[in-house]
Amino acid sequence: MKKKLLSISEAAKILGVSIDTLRNWEDKGVLKSFRPHASSKRYYQPEHLENFLKNETGTIPENIETKAIKWASGKTATETSPDLYCETNDIFSARLQSLSIKLSKITEIKEIFPLLIAVAGEIGNNSYNHNIGSWPDVPGVFFGYDMQKKLIILADRGQGILKTLKRVLPELKNDQEALQIAFTRYISARAPEDRGNGLKFVKDIILSNPIKLLFYSGQILLEIDKNSGLKFKKNKIKFPGCLAIINY
Amino acid sequence: MIIYLKKFGTNLISRPSGKEAYLALQPLIKDIKDKENLIIDFKEVLVLTPSWADEFITPLQSTFKKRLDLKNTGNPSVKATLETLKKSKAAT
Question: Is this complex scored with an ipTM above 0.95?
Fold first, then answer.
């Protein structure tokens, strides 16, 4: 038997978003609705919603870390699955919402799931906010996750932390200094706008929760976790933008 | 006057959506009386980030100062975000 079509408000309730968000997603091609006639209201097929959630959360290919590293560090961006690439902030927001729904159902991370989504949201949005109008080649972020390995990966091919912060701190000498400041000092890389809280927020959350972060930019890897604090390491691979791996 | 944030969504994450919510709030609070408090209720908010809050809460804090009350702030991302806003304010 065919399942009943869902109204836009029913679909919005299932996905935990507003009706306006669903309209916006349709305009952006993120999630299509169904109209029996051109002039009729929007409906959603339950199968489409199930697939949307599954695609966003289910079968991530193996070696997602390798894919992210290749995409973020290559001289040119390797072609990647549309499931892992968010050209615009709207697409990223939609996929993050989908991840949020999935993580909210896992009892063992009930306490930290809002923090994981907030951390991923701040890192991902940082990429768009600091590179808008200045993407060196490919705009947007790589965004993938693996529920089995308990990891979330974000990467961009943007300007990187050093170049971004040099706009307001021209005396900065290297990647390590830039990362240190980005994660510990309240300074806006979009001065005179009063911004720049995101990475400090990320660091504070990780230092007080069972979450680990590996953050690469330039030739430095910054590891943050509750037990060891902040550790900087030289990295062989150079990332012109940023790559973040969140383990929970 | 009480504003229930969940009406703007349960995942309050990006700057653009925070800005949009702030603009949408303006007609709702235009008739608030001079001595009336504005209560922001975080009940049922699942995720809040400093980016969203910086566009919505920070300007309300500047305008309403002590007349702004924040209620039901127990969610860990709400707590962490408010803490970050406080630290940022103290640093600038």
Answer: no
Alpha-carbon distance A28 to A13, whole Å?
20
Determine the residue of chain B that is closest to A18 in CA distance.
B9
Q: Do A197 and B51 touch (CB under 8 A)?
A: yes
Same-domain check for residues A123 and A42: no
Model-level pTM?
0.81
Same domain? For A43 and A62 the reply is: no
Would you mind telling me the total number of residues written for chain A in this entry? Answer: 248
Q: What is the DSSP string of A3-33?
A: PPPEEHHHHHHHHT--HHHHHHHHHHTSS--
Total domains, chain A: 2
Sign of CA dihedral A148, A150, A151, A152: positive
- Residue entry with tokens 């599954």: A54
Give the minimum alpha-carbon distance from B37 to chain A in angstroms, rounded to a whole number.
Answer: 26
Mean pLDDT estimate for chain A: 88
Taking the CA of residue A36 as centre, how many other CA atoms within 13 Å lie in the half-sphere pointing to its CB?
6
Measured in residues, chain B has a length of 92
pLDDT tens digit sequence for A208-232: 999 999 999 999 999 999 999 999 9
- Answer yes or no: do B49 and A201 touch at CB < 8 A: yes
Same domain, A169 and A208: yes
Cis peptide before A192 (omega within 30 of 0): yes
- Expressed as residue numbers, the domain containing A138 is 58-247
Tell which residue, B11, B18, B14, has the closest CA to residue B60: B18
* Count of domains for chain B: 1
Per the CB < 8 A criterion, the answer to whether A211 and A228 are in contact is: no
Q: What is the CATH number of the domain that holds A11?
A: 1.10.1660.10
